[in-house]
Write a structure and sequence with these properties.
de novo design (two linked rop proteins), elongated
């Protein structure tokens, strides 16, 4: 027997969303990054932190609101996506305005970062420290010699010395690329569900109609 449609379906559960988890890590990284590399008196500092926070909070709020408003869920998820896009531009500006490299997706350091699948700020910091140690000890020398004949990825020499700020900014950009991709998919799924099932008003009508039919 088919279960009757609930007026308010299961909702929330945002902590299990990969988009929320990645956005939360971006927030933690951004707070740390801004405290270390951005003048705390500048508007950029506050704007970057607030954009990162907005990404997290709006994913959560949209998920919680979905029980009674699919339209609000869509709106808030889109606000989260827009906030993270703004933050992505801020990181790109940081690198460009200082003449620092934005690493290509296939840069060895970024490949190692993505393979690590960091889930916490401490794991990101450990990756940065390892990359800095790798640079200092020149452990990539053999790779450089072996790959001397191969093409260099766009974004500069992959074996150049990279500062901590460059590594963190590029790690944040990598995480933001993932978060934005996940939110784009999330928005598409939400839009499809809304188009197919409607919102709270339509669900209320269906539930009331079913209740009337079930009366003796």
């Amino acid at each position: 027997m088919t279960e009757p449609e609930a007026l308010i379906p299961k909702h929330g559960g945002y902590r299990n969303l990969k988009s929320f988890q990645v956005a939360q890590l971006v927030y933690d990284v951004t707070v740390r990054f801004c405290d270390r590399y951005i003048d705390p008196r500048s508007r950029t500092h506050d704007q970057m932190v607030q954009a990162a926070r907005s990404g997290v909070q709006n994913i959560a709020e949209g998920s919680q609101a979905s029980g009674t408003s699919k339209k609000m869920e869509l709106k808030l998820t889109n606000v989260a996506r827009a906030s993270l896009e703004e933050l992505r531009l801020d990181y790109e500006d940081f690198l460009r305005q200082r003449g620092l490299p934005q690493l290509a997706p296939n840069h060895p350091a970024l490949m190692r970062f993505k393979a690590k699948r960091c889930a916490t700020l401490d794991e990101v910091r450990a990756w940065v420290e390892k990359e800095r140690s790798r640079t200092r000890t020149n452990t990539d020398e053999q790779e450089r010699v072996a790959g001397a004949e191969s093409s260099v990825p766009v974004g500069g020499d992959p074996w150049q010395s990279l500062s901590s700020s460059v590594l963190v900014a590029n790690a944040a950009l990598s995480l933001l690329n993932l978060a934005c991709y996940l939110l784009d998919r999330q928005l598409a799924a939400q839009a499809a569900t809304f188009e197919k099932e409607g919102g709270f008003t339509e669900r209320l009508y269906r539930v009331r109609s079913a209740a009337r039919k079930g009366k003796p």
